[in-house]
Amino acid sequence: MAGPPVSSPVSRLAVGDFEVSRIQAGTYWWDGGAIFGVVPKTLWSRKMPADSLNRVPLAFNCYLIRTDDHTILVETGGGDKMDARARERMKLPEESEPLPAIVVRHGFDPESIDIVINSHLHWDHCGGNTILTDGGARPAFPRARYFAARGEWEHAHERLARDSVSYIDANYDPLVESGRMTLLDGDCDVVPGVRMCRAPGHNRDMMAIVAASGGRTFCFLSDLAPTAAHVQPTWVASFDLYPLETIENKVRWLGAAVEGNWVCGFAHEVEVGFARIVGEERGFGVEAQKGG
Fold first, then answer.
1. 232, 258 in Cβ contact below 8 A?
2. Exposure pattern of 267-279 as b/e (b: 16+ CB <10 Å)?
3. How many CB atoms neighbour CB 115 within 10 A?
4. What is the pLDDT of residues 37-95, one digit of tens each?
5. For residue 26, what are the CA distances in angstroms to 96, 163, 212, 244?
6. Which of 86, 121, 246, 280 suits a disulfide with 82, CB 3.0-4.6 Å?
7. Cis before 9? omega within 30
8. SS3 category, 92
9. Cα–Cα distance measured from residue 91 to residue 195, given in angstroms and rounded to the nearest whole number
10. Is the CB of residue 128 less than 8 Å from the CB of residue 76?
11. Residue 46 and residue 265: Cα distance in Å, rounded?
């Protein structure tokens, strides 16, 4: 079963004076039970049918935020550092297309990107930060300043049995060592109107990214709600380190999205690039938004 095609041109929306575009940097397939945790398959499979190996399709979603002064890339996808066995397991191509080439294919100049934000440092969110060469890992976006949470970078180096497999040092250490990556100690305005905010649960220091302009708001939920199906508060992935905190923060963030009429983006949703969150009797739902 082939993965869903990458759409081009990418969907985009105006958020006040900002323009926000989704760049889908490919898809991969992961075990549905892991993605939906304790939720019975009879429920989650109605939202996301599985293949014969119980895998469901997930996207590497990146979002490009263009302000008057900056071009900001949120997330960089899976990158080029998976071995052949992992690629086969996830139905990835034998060779990854470099993210700058994907950016070009979607109609943007990668040289214009001057800021890269990682919500956290799991390989599927920051793998495209760097590109492997004979001389080592080099920045995929040489003009850019990179931002991530210091606590997340420190956690990556703790090498815990529970989640060490999610971290690949070549995705971030060369950037830290060269001074290209700024490690943040808490919530931070990266540029006026674009803010990184702690939203723990998936792990201790994950960030949501909020872009606000002209009375409108876009929020990248990262793995707080990795797909549109995960807006149900108790639908939590099995690999979240703090599932009760995920539920608590999901209710808080999605409630704010409803109250503020935000447009939201999901890290791994294949079909829906932008959505408004709506309150329902038993939780939340989504209204997909059309891109321009």
1. no
2. bbbbebbbbebee
3. 21
4. 999 999 999 999 999 999 999 999 999 999 999 999 999 999 999 999 999 999 999 99
5. 9, 23, 27, 31
6. 86
7. yes
8. coil
9. 34
10. yes
11. 21
